[in-house]
Model the fold of this input.
Amino acid sequence: MLKSIKSNDNILISTSILNISNDIEKINEIDKTSTDYIHLDIMDGKFVANKCEYINKIDFNKKVDIHLMVEDVVGYVHKYKDYKPEFITFHYESNETKIWDLIKYISNYSKVGIAINPSTDVDTLIPYLDDIDLVLVMSVKAGMGGQKFIDISDKINKLITLRKENNYAFQIEVDGGINIDTVNKCKNADILVVGSYITNSDNYERQILNIKNILKK
Ligand code: DX5
Ligand code: ZN
Done:
Protein backbone atom coordinates (compact mmCIF):
# COMPACT_ATOMS: atom_id res chain seq x y z
CA MET A 1 0.00 0.00 0.00
CA LEU A 2 1.27 3.48 -0.83
CA LYS A 3 2.05 5.60 2.16
CA SER A 4 0.24 8.91 1.87
CA ILE A 5 2.57 11.85 2.23
CA LYS A 6 1.24 15.02 3.78
CA SER A 7 1.80 17.80 1.27
CA ASN A 8 2.69 20.30 3.98
CA ASP A 9 5.57 18.38 5.49
CA ASN A 10 7.66 21.26 4.27
CA ILE A 11 5.82 24.55 3.90
CA LEU A 12 7.47 26.85 1.43
CA ILE A 13 7.94 30.61 1.78
CA SER A 14 7.23 33.03 -1.05
CA THR A 15 8.55 36.49 -0.24
CA SER A 16 6.43 39.40 -1.49
CA ILE A 17 8.65 42.24 -2.69
CA LEU A 18 5.73 44.67 -2.99
CA ASN A 19 7.12 47.09 -0.38
CA ILE A 20 10.55 47.18 -2.02
CA SER A 21 9.41 46.99 -5.66
CA ASN A 22 11.39 50.14 -6.55
CA ASP A 23 14.63 49.08 -4.94
CA ILE A 24 16.62 46.66 -7.08
CA GLU A 25 19.38 46.28 -4.47
CA LYS A 26 16.93 45.14 -1.84
CA ILE A 27 15.19 42.85 -4.32
CA ASN A 28 18.55 41.24 -5.16
CA GLU A 29 19.16 40.77 -1.44
CA ILE A 30 15.86 38.86 -1.10
CA ASP A 31 16.94 36.67 -4.02
CA LYS A 32 20.00 35.61 -1.98
CA THR A 33 18.04 34.50 1.10
CA SER A 34 16.57 31.07 1.77
CA THR A 35 13.14 32.10 0.50
CA ASP A 36 11.69 29.40 -1.76
CA TYR A 37 9.92 31.76 -4.16
CA ILE A 38 9.84 35.45 -5.02
CA HIS A 39 6.21 36.63 -5.04
CA LEU A 40 5.56 39.34 -7.63
CA ASP A 41 2.41 41.33 -6.85
CA ILE A 42 1.13 43.03 -9.98
CA MET A 43 -1.61 45.65 -9.65
CA ASP A 44 -3.36 47.59 -12.41
CA GLY A 45 -5.04 50.45 -10.51
CA LYS A 46 -8.40 49.06 -11.72
CA PHE A 47 -9.12 45.69 -10.11
CA VAL A 48 -7.37 47.16 -7.07
CA ALA A 49 -6.76 50.86 -6.42
CA ASN A 50 -2.97 50.65 -6.26
CA LYS A 51 -0.56 50.11 -9.12
CA CYS A 52 2.53 47.93 -9.03
CA GLU A 53 4.61 46.80 -11.97
CA TYR A 54 8.11 45.51 -12.57
CA ILE A 55 8.96 47.41 -15.73
CA ASN A 56 12.61 46.38 -16.10
CA LYS A 57 12.90 42.62 -16.13
CA ILE A 58 14.80 41.31 -13.11
CA ASP A 59 16.81 38.08 -13.37
CA PHE A 60 15.94 36.00 -10.34
CA ASN A 61 17.73 32.89 -9.16
CA LYS A 62 14.68 31.89 -7.15
CA LYS A 63 11.49 30.55 -8.63
CA VAL A 64 8.95 33.28 -9.40
CA ASP A 65 5.36 33.24 -8.20
CA ILE A 66 3.19 35.86 -9.94
CA HIS A 67 0.04 37.24 -8.30
CA LEU A 68 -2.04 39.24 -10.78
CA MET A 69 -4.46 41.74 -9.23
CA VAL A 70 -5.63 42.99 -12.63
CA GLU A 71 -8.64 43.01 -14.94
CA ASP A 72 -6.76 42.32 -18.17
CA VAL A 73 -5.24 38.97 -17.22
CA VAL A 74 -4.26 38.01 -20.78
CA GLY A 75 -2.44 41.32 -21.31
CA TYR A 76 -0.44 41.01 -18.10
CA VAL A 77 0.40 37.34 -18.69
CA HIS A 78 1.82 38.40 -22.03
CA LYS A 79 3.88 41.12 -20.32
CA TYR A 80 5.30 38.88 -17.58
CA LYS A 81 5.60 35.44 -19.20
CA ASP A 82 9.32 36.03 -19.85
CA TYR A 83 9.93 35.66 -16.13
CA LYS A 84 9.17 31.98 -16.76
CA PRO A 85 7.22 31.87 -13.51
CA GLU A 86 6.38 28.69 -11.68
CA PHE A 87 2.84 29.98 -11.04
CA ILE A 88 0.68 32.71 -12.52
CA THR A 89 -2.32 33.39 -10.31
CA PHE A 90 -5.30 35.57 -11.18
CA HIS A 91 -8.29 36.62 -9.10
CA TYR A 92 -11.58 34.79 -9.46
CA GLU A 93 -13.36 38.10 -8.77
CA SER A 94 -11.62 39.88 -11.65
CA ASN A 95 -13.00 37.62 -14.40
CA GLU A 96 -15.81 35.43 -13.07
CA THR A 97 -17.20 34.65 -16.52
CA LYS A 98 -13.90 33.82 -18.22
CA ILE A 99 -12.30 31.42 -15.79
CA TRP A 100 -11.97 28.47 -18.21
CA ASP A 101 -10.44 30.61 -20.96
CA LEU A 102 -7.91 32.05 -18.54
CA ILE A 103 -6.94 28.65 -17.12
CA LYS A 104 -6.32 27.45 -20.65
CA TYR A 105 -4.37 30.55 -21.65
CA ILE A 106 -2.10 30.65 -18.59
CA SER A 107 -1.32 26.94 -18.84
CA ASN A 108 0.59 27.69 -22.04
CA TYR A 109 3.17 29.50 -19.91
CA SER A 110 3.12 28.26 -16.31
CA LYS A 111 1.22 26.45 -13.60
CA VAL A 112 -2.17 28.06 -13.00
CA GLY A 113 -3.44 29.60 -9.77
CA ILE A 114 -6.73 31.20 -8.82
CA ALA A 115 -6.91 33.66 -5.92
CA ILE A 116 -9.95 34.40 -3.79
CA ASN A 117 -10.42 37.48 -1.60
CA PRO A 118 -11.62 37.01 1.99
CA SER A 119 -15.24 37.68 0.96
CA THR A 120 -15.28 34.96 -1.72
CA ASP A 121 -16.31 31.44 -0.73
CA VAL A 122 -14.18 28.40 -1.50
CA ASP A 123 -17.24 26.76 -3.10
CA THR A 124 -17.01 29.12 -6.09
CA LEU A 125 -13.81 27.31 -7.09
CA ILE A 126 -15.20 23.77 -6.97
CA PRO A 127 -15.75 23.49 -10.77
CA TYR A 128 -12.09 24.34 -11.41
CA LEU A 129 -10.21 22.51 -8.66
CA ASP A 130 -9.26 19.51 -10.80
CA ASP A 131 -7.79 21.77 -13.48
CA ILE A 132 -5.64 24.20 -11.52
CA ASP A 133 -2.32 23.91 -9.72
CA LEU A 134 -2.77 26.45 -6.95
CA VAL A 135 -5.48 28.07 -4.87
CA LEU A 136 -4.35 31.38 -3.37
CA VAL A 137 -6.40 32.12 -0.27
CA MET A 138 -6.13 35.82 0.56
CA SER A 139 -5.89 36.55 4.26
CA VAL A 140 -6.26 40.30 3.57
CA LYS A 141 -8.27 42.04 0.85
CA ALA A 142 -5.99 42.18 -2.20
CA GLY A 143 -4.56 45.61 -2.89
CA MET A 144 -1.79 46.55 -0.49
CA GLY A 145 0.86 45.23 1.86
CA GLY A 146 0.99 45.61 5.63
CA GLN A 147 -2.68 44.83 6.38
CA LYS A 148 -4.01 42.90 9.36
CA PHE A 149 -4.33 39.12 8.99
CA ILE A 150 -7.85 37.69 8.64
CA ASP A 151 -8.25 34.14 9.95
CA ILE A 152 -8.99 31.97 6.90
CA SER A 153 -8.22 28.60 8.52
CA ASP A 154 -11.74 27.32 7.73
CA LYS A 155 -11.08 27.89 4.02
CA ILE A 156 -7.76 26.05 4.20
CA ASN A 157 -9.38 23.10 5.96
CA LYS A 158 -12.24 22.97 3.45
CA LEU A 159 -9.78 22.94 0.56
CA ILE A 160 -7.78 20.17 2.19
CA THR A 161 -10.94 18.08 2.59
CA LEU A 162 -11.97 18.67 -1.03
CA ARG A 163 -8.49 17.78 -2.21
CA LYS A 164 -8.41 14.57 -0.23
CA GLU A 165 -11.94 13.43 -1.14
CA ASN A 166 -11.41 14.01 -4.85
CA ASN A 167 -7.73 13.26 -5.19
CA TYR A 168 -6.98 16.73 -6.53
CA ALA A 169 -3.40 17.94 -6.88
CA PHE A 170 -3.61 21.71 -6.33
CA GLN A 171 -1.45 23.43 -3.74
CA ILE A 172 -2.77 25.88 -1.19
CA GLU A 173 -1.09 29.26 -0.80
CA VAL A 174 -2.00 31.93 1.78
CA ASP A 175 -1.20 35.63 1.27
CA GLY A 176 -1.47 38.67 3.52
CA GLY A 177 -0.59 39.72 7.05
CA ILE A 178 1.56 36.69 7.82
CA ASN A 179 4.12 37.15 10.61
CA ILE A 180 5.36 35.19 13.63
CA ASP A 181 2.08 35.85 15.48
CA THR A 182 -0.28 34.77 12.68
CA VAL A 183 1.68 32.02 10.91
CA ASN A 184 0.29 29.29 13.14
CA LYS A 185 -3.13 29.83 11.57
CA CYS A 186 -1.70 28.86 8.17
CA LYS A 187 0.19 25.74 9.14
CA ASN A 188 -1.95 23.47 6.97
CA ALA A 189 -1.16 25.37 3.77
CA ASP A 190 1.64 24.50 1.32
CA ILE A 191 3.06 27.94 0.46
CA LEU A 192 2.96 31.10 2.56
CA VAL A 193 3.41 34.57 1.10
CA VAL A 194 5.20 36.86 3.52
CA GLY A 195 5.80 40.54 2.72
CA SER A 196 6.20 43.29 5.34
CA TYR A 197 7.39 40.95 8.07
CA ILE A 198 10.46 40.29 5.92
CA THR A 199 10.91 43.43 3.86
CA ASN A 200 10.36 45.96 6.68
CA SER A 201 13.30 44.44 8.49
CA ASP A 202 17.03 45.09 8.13
CA ASN A 203 17.78 41.36 8.21
CA TYR A 204 15.71 39.47 5.65
CA GLU A 205 17.26 36.05 6.25
CA ARG A 206 16.69 36.23 10.01
CA GLN A 207 12.98 36.99 9.47
CA ILE A 208 12.58 34.09 7.02
CA LEU A 209 14.25 31.72 9.47
CA ASN A 210 12.01 32.98 12.29
CA ILE A 211 8.97 31.94 10.24
CA LYS A 212 10.51 28.63 9.12
CA ASN A 213 11.43 27.74 12.71
CA ILE A 214 7.85 28.22 13.90
CA LEU A 215 6.61 26.03 11.03
CA LYS A 216 8.94 23.22 12.10
CA LYS A 217 7.36 23.00 15.56
C1 DX5 B 1 -1.65 42.09 -1.00
C2 DX5 B 1 -0.52 41.31 -1.63
C3 DX5 B 1 0.34 40.58 -0.68
C4 DX5 B 1 0.95 41.42 0.38
C5 DX5 B 1 1.85 40.63 1.28
O1 DX5 B 1 -2.51 42.55 -1.96
O2 DX5 B 1 -1.04 40.36 -2.51
O3 DX5 B 1 1.29 39.80 -1.37
O4 DX5 B 1 1.61 42.51 -0.12
O5 DX5 B 1 2.42 41.51 2.16
P1 DX5 B 1 2.12 41.52 3.71
O6 DX5 B 1 2.81 40.31 4.26
O7 DX5 B 1 2.72 42.80 4.13
O8 DX5 B 1 0.64 41.47 3.92
ZN1 ZN C 1 0.28 38.75 -3.28
Summary: The domain at 12-216 is CATH 3.20.20.70 (TIM Barrel). The CA atoms of residues 5 and 164 lie 12 Å apart. The chain has six helices and nine strands. Residues 16, 39, 41, 67, 175, 193 surround zinc ion (ligand 2) (CB under 6 Å).
